[in-house]
Design brief:
This protein has about 240 residues and is α/β, with parallel strands linked by helices. It has 8 helices and 8 strands; from the N terminus they run ααβαβαβαβαβααβββ. Helix 3 links the parallel strand 1 and strand 2.
């Protein structure tokens, strides 16, 4: 059994240091709050959340997990940052969010415990922060039920994404903290599609996510050259 944890200690430390700011709408996490309604609606349109058992991998402070629970799902959020999870749990208590729980465990660890238990699995803005993203994709495939959906979001690796997502967002517009993304870890859509195929997941839908610095608004688009989301389905019949 491979006991090596698929996590970068420096990445965990970076997000742990910011944990107390997850629910501050004017903090470094403001972009996540701004894009959350867009990605929530996109997920819900493809896999209606009401009554589903949903897993959010790399949930951080619980922004997406909390909103999916409020759409009627029974949500488990997992992360390896204990500080972020404490913030998520505290927010759920303060906001009285129903049907949401959090646990400190890796996707691979949970897949070994409870394979095939979730109707929908989300893994957003996380793959570019781990040493082995293909392992996370495989774990998500193992965790979802046959016929169920898995949603990934990440950043593509190309000159445009370097200019927009790293130089622009981190250094010029200060939308996210400097050093949030490492260019070499970004993942092209073709690479993510290959990880999904290897894990026996069928790519069904893709969407880009664009930011307009003039209006300071985000919007879904067909352009997947920088930020993008992928909806994949596990073959089989929905139980």
């Amino acid at each position: 059994m491979n006991t090596t944890l698929n996590a970068d200690p420096a990445e965990l430390a970076k997000f742990s240091d910011l944990a107390h700011r997850w629910w501050d709408l004017d903090s470094e996490f403001r972009p996540l709050h701004q894009i959350n309604p867009l990605r929530l609606d996109w997920i819900n349109a493809i896999s209606p959340l009401q009554g589903q058992r949903v897993l959010d991998v790399g949930c951080g402070g619980g922004i997406l997990a909390d909103s999916m629970a409020r759409r009627g799902a029974d949500v488990l959020g997992i992360d390896l940052s204990g500080k972020a999870l404490k913030v998520a749990q505290l927010h759920a208590l303060e906001a009285q969010t129903p049907r949401v729980a959090y646990r400190e465990i890796s996707a691979e660890g949970l897949a070994a415990e409870v394979p095939g238990q979730f109707d929908t699995v989300t893994c957003m803005e996380m793959l570019e922060h781990v040493p082995n993203p293909a392992s996370v994709v495989q774990a998500c495939a193992d965790l979802v039920k046959p016929g169920g959906w898995v949603f990934f979001s990440t950043l593509s690796r190309n000159t445009k994404s370097f200019l927009y997502a790293i130089l622009g967002a981190e250094y010029l517009l200060n939308l996210v903290p400097r050093g949030t993304h490492e260019y070499a870890k970004l993942i092209r859509p073709s690479e993510l599609a290959a990880y999904c195929r290897h894990a026996d997941l069928d790519v069904r839908h893709t969407s880009g996510l664009e930011y307009n610095p003039l209006t300071q608004r985000y919007a879904l688009s067909a352009n997947t050259s920088v930020n993008y989301m992928v909806a994949v389905q596990k073959p089989g019949q929905v139980a």
